[in-house]
Amino acid sequence: MSVNGTDPTEMTSDDGVETIADELLDQALAERRALVQLCLYALDRASAGVVARIEEGLSSIGVVALRADGERFDPSQHEAAGTVPTDDKSLLGLVAETEVPGFCDRGRVLRAPIVTVYTAR
Predict the structure, then answer these.
(1) Could you report the per-residue pLDDT of 71-105, keeping only the tens digit for each?
(2) CATH class (in words) of the domain with range 63-121
(3) Is 71 within 8 Å of 102 (Cβ atoms)?
(4) Fewer CB near the last or first residue (10 Å), C or N of the chain?
């Protein structure tokens, strides 16, 4: 209840303008996106222990790290940063290492992992 006795979540105008609750939700979502981006920025510059803690915290709100080690390289899902030559034909085209983890927010990719890929020597 607000001061004037109305429930702000039920307020709507005759012309279909967003309710106060819709505006607050939009603001909260925008602030969440900004905080997640700030966490990713900090994560890229942090020590291993801090990285683990930030990833744990992000995971608790649905933002998960993407590491592609051992997966088949897919340019639509991975960003190639380099290659690793190999004579092992079974490794060709696989991700050798994730250099920078990617992140996904409840199924929506925020950034692709940056990887190195095995190629023929």
Answers:
(1) 999 999 999 999 999 999 999 999 999 999 999 99
(2) mainly beta
(3) no
(4) N
